[in-house]
Amino acid sequence: MEKSQRILVLRASLILFLLLLSLLYIGEFGSHVVPSNQAKKQRTNWDGSHIEDQENLHFLMKKLVEGGNQTDQGEATGFACHSDLHTDVCVSNRPVRIDTLTMKVYAPFSQGMPQANRIIHPYPKKEEKWINRSVSSLQILQGNISPPLPCRYTHNVPAVVFSSGLFSGNVFHDFSELIIPLFLTSRHFQSRLHFIVTDFRPIFFDKYKKIFFHLSSYEVINPAANVGVHCFPGVVVGLHYHDHLAINTTAIPRGYSMLDFKQFLRESYNLKIRDMSQMEKPVLVLISRHNSRMFLNEDQMVTMMRALGFTVVVTKPDMMANIDKFSKIVNSCSVLVAAHGAGLTNIVFLPQGAVMVQVVGLSLEWPSTNYYGNPATEMGLNYLEYKIEPEESSLISLYGRDNPIITDPPSISASRGMLVGRAIYLGEQNFDINVTRFRNTLVKALELIGHSAPSG
Question: Quick check: helix, strand or coil at residue 418?
């Protein structure tokens, strides 16, 4: 009998302990989206300090705009915008209401200030002529609405609103126009923010879920699936963009570099290798293409690479689709070789001091340098390029050795238009690499990572 009572007491204690543990978990990690009539005042120290919420929010929002009148306007009204060639970014450090049915943002302003309503397509590269067709617009209404729209949901952290439309789905555009701009715009908040994403693409978010998990502690809000008025203590509409795969430490928001971004990726994907001091043997990843800009003699190239002492990993397009696994493959290599193309974006996962070798086709010098060459050096990488000779291009067999397409590539875009030039040099061109000449480039790559080629 006494033994049975002890068992009952132990069971009751265990149940009580689990119940208390569940309540603590909900209190710490539970949903931060609550109906407005249940909302409670909460004071959260976002950066571990004792700064008041509103003061901290004001400080973080101020980092996202710059300059004279804009800063003054933000001080007076709690609302300011930054505009440049590529993007518009508007911020409010005062409470806003966002109607996800109409995608209207209602932002208050101080008495006496002029009303300044705006329409924004919240995707970088606003200069692209397709943006109006591919990116849904969002309207910011500055003014005091009476009576105010009732909040269906009240959030205790600010929102960052952007679009995943336009070019997402291509890994270069994913990183250059969305992931790096998201890091620039939202990293200051230390995960204490909500993302509201127009033109929502589930495939995009599933592919980069680890990145979003490390940028925000909250589920992404898809307006179409979360219809209603959402109330936030502040908002950022739009994303900052600096350049192709670039972070400019002197531009706003200041404080981060491309090396910081790479560290963020290592944390997001649990990548172990930071720099070449952790690498013993030379490992080369060759990105294999199956459409345009293919290596027609890829087997010969691999044989030469192995003869130089490289462990060679040939990666196919299906391998690159799983970024969780592919990031680890790239992080474990010391040299990455690829023809100019989106696959080179994976240099973001290379260890510092590694080598990127870009094969540059006819008429592809400018995009090769600006899309990948210059960014590589900012990432702490060594950059080598192999410019093909006309005889290494498959375009000779299509058009003949004396055709202006071969002898004068710049004249093609000038006379026929950029789209025609792109179709030819990006869409029709493959490479038959001179293995002997290419070997010299890889010998330099070996030297850069502290190895030497075998004699003979």
Answer: helix
State how far the Cα of 324 lies from the Cα of 207, in Å rounded to an integer: 8
Q: Where are the alpha helices (DSSP H) in 35-178?
A: 53-62, 68-77, 131-134, 171-173
Which two structure tokens, joined as six digits, stand for 155? Answer: 């959030």
**Pairwise CA distance, residues 89 & 238, whole Å:** 5
Strand partners, 386: 359
Strand partners, 33: 155
As beta bridge partners, residue 206 has none
pLDDT per residue as tens digits for the range 400-414: 999 999 999 999 989
Average pLDDT over residues 430-436: 98
Query: How far out from the chain centre does Cα 198 lie?
Result: 16
Identify residue 219 by its one-letter amino acid code. E
Q: How far apart are CA 263 and CA 273, in angstroms?
A: 10
Task: Retrieve residue 11's tokens.
Answer: 């069971």
Q: Is the pLDDT of residue 47 over 90?
A: no
Q: Residue 223: CB partners within 8 Å, gap ≥ 6?
A: 100, 101, 103, 196, 197, 198, 200
Secondary structure class of 327 (helix, strand, coil):
helix
- As to burial, measured by CB atoms within 10 angstroms (0-12 exposed, 13-18 middle, 19+ buried), residue 64 is buried
Q: Measuring CA to CA, which residue among 383, 338, 333, 382 is closest to residue 359?
A: 338
N-to-C CA span, the chain: 88
Q: Residue 153: name the closest of 98, 200, 220 by CA.
A: 98
- What is the DSSP pairing of strand 159-163 with strand 283-287? unpaired
Name residue 295's beta-bridge partners: 431
> 261 and 180 in contact (C-beta within 8 Å)?
yes
Cα separation, 364 vs 358, in Å, equals 11
**Contact indicator for 296, 394 with CB cutoff of 8 Å:** yes
Q: Cα(216)–Cα(220) distance, rounded to whole angstroms?
A: 8
pTM of this structure: 0.85
Q: In what order do the strands lie in the sheet with 104-107?
A: 33-34, 153-155, 229-232, 96-99, 104-107, 138-142, 118-120
